[in-house]
Design brief:
This protein is an alpha+beta fold. 44% of the residues lie in helices and 18% in strands. The strands form 2 sheets. It has a 5-stranded antiparallel sheet with strand order 1-8-3-6-9, with helices on one face. Strands 2-7-4-5 form a 4-stranded antiparallel sheet, with no helix packed on it. A hairpin with a 2-residue loop joins strand 4 and strand 5.
Length: 280
């Protein structure tokens, strides 16, 4: 489990067996708390027994048997069991999701926590059992079967979350791809030239297209993603303000303070103090 790090000042994410693979599927028994942390891959949890709470980007949820939730790359989350919890845990990298439309839909989720009914629980449990079996064995067509099972699992999540989905239908396919990429990689050192090149455009043409479709500049949109993320980090005292700056993707501390004040009307320290005092 990785703790958040700030470049060379803090520890880098701890490497696990997962670093050698694109996918892990495990049944786990957990009886201890995991403090706020993040990782750079997707994680899916299905609660089999036990109960407790999980905080995802500042939103607190109570889980029990049948709870299913998805952790996106860089989501801040903390796990607190009330008793011994048995669960299915799936970790996967973006690179193993072959269908780009699934990536786009995943980035549009406004809610990542669901409570399954009995029929849905049996369906998802069966998919995970098959996925674990295929991932741990060497058979013909293994990769194809895993691909199909993963798509089935992720599409089940998307269908379950349809009421909370932020549609990108109003945007062109090109803009949906751009927005999806930014939501997945906003913490990185992204430039308009990089995204434009990814889509096969010049930076000038892409910048004009982006503003026309989205209603803001590329930099404004990117900074808004980073600022909303910084608000989640500020909920946790373990992260100093300068650490929050870097972890949110800002390279300049002064620019971060200025951008935060311009968007929210107060400085990060004031925002944190207001949270503590119950003013927000």
């Amino acid at each position: 489990m990785s703790e958040i790090g700030v470049e060379n000042k803090l520890k880098k994410p701890v490497r696990s067996d997962f670093e050698k693979h694109e996918l892990t599927v495990k049944k786990k028994t957990i009886d201890k708390m995991y403090n706020a942390h993040w990782h750079d891959y997707f994680e899916i949890k299905l609660i089999l027994s036990g109960d407790g709470t999980v905080i995802i980007n500042g939103e607190k949820h109570t889980f029990k048997k049948g709870s299913l939730y998805l952790i996106m790359p860089a989501n801040i989350h903390a796990f607190t069991p009330r008793n011994v919890v048995e669960l299915y845990n799936v970790t996967l990298r973006e690179s193993i999701i072959f269908d780009e439309s699934i990536i786009h839909k995943l980035s549009g989720f406004s809610e990542l926590f669901f409570q399954l009914n009995d029929e849905e629980f049996e369906q998802v449990y069966y998919i995970l059992e098959l996925l674990k079996y295929e991932n741990n064995c060497e058979h013909d067509y293994k990769d194809q079967i895993i691909k199909n099972l993963l798509e089935c699992l992720l599409l089940t999540l998307i269908r379950k979350s349809s009421d909370n989905y932020i549609s990108g239908d109003n945007y062109s396919t090109v803009m949906q791809i751009a927005i999806s990429y930014l939501k997945m990689h906003f913490r990185d050192d992204i430039t308009v030239q990089e995204v434009a090149s990814l889509l096969g455009f010049s930076s000038g043409y892409f910048s004009t297209l982006f503003r026309k479709n989205i209603g803001s500049t590329f930099v404004q949109f990117l900074n808004d993603l980073r600022l909303e993320y910084s608000k989640n980090l500020l909920l946790y005292d373990k992260f100093a303000i300068n650490e929050v700056c870097v972890m949110s993707g800002f390279k300049s501390y002064s620019n971060f303070l200025k951008a935060f004040k311009n968007k929210f009307g107060i400085l990060p320290k004031e925002y944190r103090n207001n949270i503590k005092s119950g003013k927000l």
